[in-house]
């Protein structure tokens, strides 16, 4: 072979080696082995060097063909493909790091804690017995109760939709069955299994553990594996996302009729730009700007144009919100996913519920029952295995049965029974295949008829969507999903519209190295950086929603200038609203410093605790932090607000630290008053929000607190009043908190204790 070579990327190998590749090229593509150079195989993908004049012949013959037992795709390894391979390989490695971290944490806890300790922490239930509840939505249902009749379950964290593992003696056995929780009561927990679990699960002495769900990781890796050899729409999405190609520049779409006439101009602009894209568009929605409302309009406009539409999000809650919005507008929606993970009010719109009344699906179930009946008949016949088979093939057994002969010590009647068993097995297999065909046909009919198909990013990677490609994909909460998570639904789309805000919290990553190596950066953020233009520029890949409907303009102002280049404006309905509008009078507040802090006319207040003795601390064995003195102050401010007439349901206390949240919650214990972490409160809002920063020390160390996006989330949860409590000497060295203190001093109020 000469010096000049062309590299081909062969993907989809399943254990095949260099010899299999050379053989396929020689036999199928008539390529002389002498023109084949180096072959490098790595985890199912091979790089093959060939002489340039045979490359096209190989592509025409073997792309989509077989090498050994594997169906492969073959792509020239040009600069774009090489860039995509590096991108996919890097993300695949990070996904594997994250998966290993979650498994490690799970297994470490099971190994280091006794079953009793795990039960005390709410992550396991011991001394359980299972009861067969039969087939139902999502699989075969089993109800688990305490072995002692009438004994209630202890406090636990297991919730509907969680994955649980059932064990009898060893909770780390690879073959322990896992199921999805479908119902939880004070006395029982019901889970669905697919397929039906072994018989011991319907006995006593069982342990039920909260378990790790490995399926999302597998689906991420499967999606990433498609990128290097992608063609068509997926290749276009890939190249725009990696920066190898620019996004298409098209004129904004014309819209004659709006489903939501109340959309403001920036929302309408975003919808027009999104509808015109040929590949990717970003709808950037800062806090309170109505990004989900805008996404719903995009979905409805796509349906009006006859497009097939897939709508996804990282969380089940976000998907349910989309489904609820669309159902209210009268759209025909099908919700994929396990019914247990879907809001009860929306279960009628799930695929499972739709299939129950589908004639083809009912027929598939009848055929499946016939198959099981055939298998039951096998119990009356000898199984062709072990002592009776004696090395005979299925064909040999059938031939001997037809002849009425025995063989190798096996009497003719046993031969006949084994032949009957084989015939029944073949019949059952045919029936199962027919049931599968009918079921898939029913699923395809339901999905094809739907105006919008909705699912989580992960569920979009299930077998349900095999063979389905949608004209438009809309991913809500795209900035709370990792890039690999977004690629799962994107492999089913001709174009993608991502909705989110990369100035708020990124996805949670367990493995620090994976996070720092890039897994924490959402695809939305990568696209915004690669193709950054002014969002006001026609044809920009990003549209910015500018009008917010939540915050007083003083609260909004800090976020707008710090994170959004001063582009946000407050709608007139909220621009000047305060606690006074809710009937809170200054006279109802304590006549001391607390009145200055809580005054209705001051929508943004920073309370400086530097001059009081309020040190932060860390409990032994805890990774979190607390500040008892600051906690007491915040609890008192909350009590004062409620005494002045603020409803507990209109008030929230948030902190970056779990231990501080627990401390405050234990002090107050007020029904309807929400006390939560900043991360847990993302996407929510309250009339008044009290923020406890916790950190106070002589070294100016703020650690975990030094994440500007987390504080952006914290501050923008408030509608009429935000009170931030912290040590200015400690937190003020941070750029974002220093800026807040200065901003509050000029535009709001600072109060030193």
- The share of residues in extended strands comes to 15-25%
What is the overall silhouette? Answer: globular
- The count of strands amounts to 27
Rg, Cα atoms, Å: 31 Å
Task: Report the end-to-end length measured between terminal Cα atoms.
Answer: 82 Å
Sheet with the most strands, sense and barrel status: 7 strands, parallel
Summing up helix and strand content along with how strands pair, one would put the structural category as alpha/beta
Mean pLDDT: 91
Contiguous low-pLDDT stretches (5 residues minimum) are none
Question: How many individual helices?
Answer: 25
Biggest sheet, spatial arrangement of strands: 15-16-14-17-18-13-19
Give the helix proportion (percent range). 25-40%
What is shown here, in short?
The chain has 25 helices and 27 strands.
Essential attributes:
single chain; 753 residues; alpha/beta; 6-stranded antiparallel beta barrel; 25 helices; 39% helix; globular
